[in-house]
Structures are given as structure tokens and as C-alpha cells.
Amino acid sequence: MFTRLSTTLIAMCVAIVSVAPVPSSAGIKVYEDGDKFIEIGGRIQLQYLYFSESPAEGEGESADTIFFRRIRPYIAGSVTKNWWGKIQFDFGKALDSNEVALKDGYMQYIGFKNHKIFIGNAKSVFSREYLASSKRQQTVERWFVGQHNFGNPDRMLGFRIDGNTDSKRFEYKLNVGGESFDPDNRRMDFDTPANDAGDFNLGWVAAGRVTFYPKEPIKRDQGDFTRGSFNYAVEAAAFAWTNNEEDLTYTDVVDGLQVCNNDKKCDLDNANGWELSGGLRGHGLSVDLEYNQIFGEMVAKNVNSGMYVDGETTIKKWQLEGGYMLGNLPLEFVYKRDSMDTDGYAKKWYANDIGINYFFNQHKAKVQVLYRMESNVN
Fold it and tell me: Which residues neighbour 194 within 8 Å (Cβ) at sequence distance 6 or greater?
């Protein structure tokens, strides 16, 4: 049955932010003694959500709710030169006994010129939208191209290196580590092994990314507050994931063949993907464009549900997102168009978003209003 979803979403985002010399963090430094320091910070995002359905036949349903989308305090610090660490938890997705999720939990070494090395639980480097901080985006939610529910690697438990040239016009990122798959045939959901639900498939992920800035570096933060001249970024990335074949909860061997023993959940054998993306900032305009394509193969071949056909699927996603910042008022008007298709879908799932952001102090305190219109028959 064809279903059109119209979603109105209101969220308030408040983050404690101050300038600090920590390379990839921004909070309030509460202690400092030479190379030693302690910094605290976080983000709070309160979200009101109303949605209504307009099916092709019959009457649709509507509902609303209010909840904390993200409550993420963190603490960062150092006890010696060139080394520092960060721990961040999320209380916003509390569910049953799972009342807290680990987000960042890593050590970082900054002693090499133009390089940073992460050891621990850190973001995988696939998807431009995913690498942009959730507190510095034009919409509260990441959609198809940045969602770990639809094939993108989430945080991984391992090693990552970020590097750039002296001019900073070319940069690269590489990571390798453990990455879990959360079985659900409606999606291809990856998660960090640090938050295991019991039936996850543990595997290994490797990802790489290159970025070129034709003029000068620009951040992935969305929203152009400086209103300077136009600057651009062009990016490409790829990843590969493989199951370690030790936690196949939903796979049995029948007559010598591996079969899935569940109608809704099956084990993933491998996945890989590639991405092309870019961004533009300047004169109040902030635009991001991303396309990524991900292939996944189940352990069993008898999987024909959700997004999988004969145990395989290819997820094709693209997104165009843009916003214009007024020069005399702290207002930004936002538009987003995104689409996703898989082997198991009858038609593409697409959506249009329009929104307004009001900034009390740039991304440190803001209100976002979003109206989202989806068409999904799957």
C-alpha cells in the first residue's frame, strides 16, 4: 500500500561550547596545569515530533511525542604531552535496560606533524554527513546517506589516522577495527561492538577517505555564519566489512546448506560501499551533496524480505541539502531532498524537507523547525 508520511519536527539543541586547544573537541576547561587538563562539555537536544500518514486507501494515522533526541555529556583531558582522551555517553536513547550508550571513547596522539591517531571507539570515516557533528547540522536527524541503519559503518572499536598536507588542501582518513551488525532484514544496521545487544554479528571494518579543497579548507559544519567567499570540498570514500563468522545467531545448516532460521532477522556475511560527496560554503550559503552505494550479502541465500532478494541487496542513496543564512537576522532557511532504493523495494523511498533554524549563539544554542514529506511504499 502506498503511504505518504508528512512529518513536522521541532527540536531545541543546546550545547556547552568554548574554544579550547583540544584538536577535535570544544567544551569548558575546568583544570589546567602545563600539559595536564580536564575539559567537560556536551549537547542536549529536545525534540517534539508529530507525524501523519496519508495512505492511498482508507484513513491514515497521526501521532505525536516528545523526547530527548540526544543527551551527550563528555569529559576529555590529558596527563602528558601529545596524548589526550575523550569519553562521551548518550542518555537520549534509553530503552528498557539499555539506559546509556557509549559514543566516543578513545585516546588520541597528536605528536606527528599534520596527523592525529585515534585508538579506541571512534567514528568510521565513511559518509560526509555522518562525519559532520550532529550538533552542527542543519537538521536534527541524519537521513539516508548518513544513517548507520542503511549500510553506513557506525563508530568502530580500533584504530584511525587523520592526515593532511602542509597546505591543508588535501587530507586523508583511514580506519580499521571491530564493527557489529544488528540483524534486521528491513535495514542494514551497523553499530559499535561497545554497545552489543546480544545477537549482533561481530566483524571487521576498514575504511578510507580523501578530501580535496580547491581553494582553502572548510569545515563539514553546516551553516555559513561568516558569509565569506565561496569555498568548496570534493570527497571520495570506500569501506569493506566482513563477518568473523563466530556469532551466527540466525543461521542453521540444513542438508549441507546455510539457511536463515528467522523470518525477520538474518546474519550478514559481508558488505562494501563507496561514496562521492562535496560541499560548498560562502555568502551565507551552505550546500552538501552526497551519493553512496552499498552492497551487502547475507550468510544464507534464502533471504527474501525487507531490502534483501536471494540474500543480497544494493543500497543506492543520494542527498542534496542546502541552507541560506540571512545577513541581518540569525535565521537560516533549509531545504533537503533525499532518496534511497534497494533490491527489495518496489519503489524508491524519497523525501523532501523544508525548515527554519533560529540561532541564539550559532550552533551552541538554537531552535530548529522541520517539515518532512516522505513517500514510501515499502
Answer: 102, 105, 121, 155, 157
* Residue that the C-alpha cell 497521526 belongs to: 62
How many CA atoms within 13 Å lie on the side-chain side of 218?
30
Residue range of the domain that includes 103: 3-376
CB 278 within 8 A of CB 289: yes
Distances from the Cα of 73 to the Cα of 14, 104, 123, 130, 355, angstroms:
12, 10, 17, 19, 27
**Strands of the chain, DSSP E:** 3-16, 28-33, 36-55, 62-80, 83-90, 101-109, 115-123, 155-164, 170-182, 189-191, 201-212, 231-243, 251-254, 257-260, 268-282, 285-298, 312-325, 331-341, 349-359, 365-376
Backbone angles phi, psi at 129, to 5 degrees: -65, -40
List Cα–Cα distances, 176 to 132, 238, 241, 273, in angstroms. 20, 12, 10, 15
The pTM score is 0.89
**Rounded distance, CA 199 to CA 264, Å?**
13
Rounded Cα–Cα distance for residues 360 and 137 (Å): 15
Per-residue pLDDT of the chain (378 residues; tens, 9 = 90+): 334 444 444 444 443 333 333 334 467 899 999 899 999 998 888 888 888 877 656 667 788 888 888 899 999 999 999 999 999 999 886 555 667 889 999 999 999 999 999 999 999 999 999 999 988 999 888 889 999 999 999 999 999 999 999 999 999 999 999 999 999 999 999 999 998 877 899 999 999 999 999 999 999 999 999 999 999 999 999 999 999 988 899 999 998 899 999 999 999 999 999 999 999 999 999 999 999 999 999 999 999 999 999 999 999 999 999 999 998 899 999 999 999 999 999 999 999 999 999 999 998 888 888 888 888 766
Domain tally, the chain: 1
- Could you tell me the CATH number of the domain that includes residue 211? 2.40.160.10
